[in-house]
Amino acid sequence: MAKQKKGEKAAAGGLREQLRVPAGPVDLTTYDTRATPGFDGSKDDGKVALEGLGAEVSDWQERLFAEGRKGGERSVLLVLQGMDTSGKGGVIRHGAGLMDPQGLKITSFKAPTPAEKRRGFLWRIKQALPDEGMIGIFDRSHYEDVLIARVRNLVTPNVWNRRYDQINDFETELAAHGTTILKCYLHISPEEQRTRLEARLDDPTKYWKYNPGDVDERQLWPDYMDAYHAAIERCNTPEAPWYVIPSDRKWYRNWAVTTLLLETLRELNPEWPVPDFDVEKEKKRLAAT
Amino acid sequence: MAKQKKGEKAAAGGLREQLRVPAGPVDLTTYDTRATPGFDGSKDDGKVALEGLGAEVSDWQERLFAEGRKGGERSVLLVLQGMDTSGKGGVIRHGAGLMDPQGLKITSFKAPTPAEKRRGFLWRIKQALPDEGMIGIFDRSHYEDVLIARVRNLVTPNVWNRRYDQINDFETELAAHGTTILKCYLHISPEEQRTRLEARLDDPTKYWKYNPGDVDERQLWPDYMDAYHAAIERCNTPEAPWYVIPSDRKWYRNWAVTTLLLETLRELNPEWPVPDFDVEKEKKRLAAT
């Protein structure tokens, strides 16, 4: 168990307990996007605390990976959702970046191609699932199919309405086969988004991240919030719970998601595999070479 | 350009020039597995120097990634080969681990399945190639098809003999389509391998990395060296050169491969993409929201 860093507050049940969305109706306007639940230090403290998670989270990751190589069937899937600029990429860079890239399977979902649409919205998602021992990370996910698809009327209400149950069935089955699912909504305010989009327009090294369509989507903010409320409420199951991560402070967001991942790995508690060979006999064979 | 760290020796042509295998016959016994070309510091200096590469290599990686998102077609492919325990995984963990995992596509090749064999040995390799803007890393590769396949007579001599030309054709085409290929042979001595295998048998957290088959392969060391000599000699093209990395010292190996990657990215010199929209107009649109 890693030592607690300055700023980290231990709480019964851990950070998952604090950030987990309770069952029932969801209203994101009641969540403070600048809050830092479970942490009462400064930005610098937060960065130090994040670095401090590296060794332990990497160790657990290697144990899970080892287990997967020796017949274990467990894996972890981290789903990242949020409005543009909420920091899905930042979490991967700074949080997942602490781990061994060999044990990560990262997929960034863009608009589906015609060939993908034809196969049903979950088909491409299933292609991207983590194998045993791996930590899968989705930058956007099947939730886009009840978010932009709903807001932009890309399919009829009848179609998107059925998808919530389809998602729950899919996630329940996934969990039953050994995948621990962690769904994070990175929660920013519209004001913070404006600031971040402005920053992209002010910095030539960030132009490539900007898309004029981002402003169009931004103008539909209330519609997106409605769609998020429905998605989080209707797909908030014990097998695949939602967490709301206050994300106006990037350092908190990175620390919080990494901590959720760490708590999840600790609970899975993968053991180093027992040898499937005779250790003493192998030592002798090796010595003879 | 990053400042040089203690131990790093600048050389005309860079480290690539020093580690690149010259055209002609190859004899790996003439390479010192404990050498540290281009570096004359201690192990600790080496670790500091490696960390010191992180910021610059990440910056270039992001530029390449950005270029790829805006129509650029270039990518990098790092091929890692070497005997068991030579440290292919260690290079990925410690070297590639310095970069953003979103820009990496890592593939570890095991024995091919019947379905893969049926499609020809290059089929599964092509599935795993990096897309534009990405850095692909192969932990083992199509070279296994002229290494273990040759040593273990998995195919007839006639079949493996033709593969060298097939590999050269494949790599030449790949390079012509914008992929810079970097092939690294991680060179360890048989004595160092014994030490590392012993370490795996002495440490319960490493048992999972040990396979009794490793000792069988080890007993064929001279045959593998012959196969490596042929592979490196016959597939050492200007488009896809081989580098021999002395790898008995893990810290040197990690620093050297990362430095080769850095020099490659510097030479590609990807520029931040120019905006494909009107920046001032977008600022106004954004301000109005």
TrEMBL record, chains A, B:
MF annotations from Gene Ontology: polyphosphate kinase activity
Keywords per UniProt: Kinase, Transferase
Pfam families: PPK2
Occurrences of domain Polyphosphate kinase-2-related (ranges): 42-268
Source species of the chain: Kribbella rubisoli
UniProt GO BP: polyphosphate metabolic process
Top-level taxon of the source organism: Bacteria
Residue numbers spanned by region Disordered: 1-44
Full protein name: PPK2 family polyphosphate:nucleotide phosphotransferase
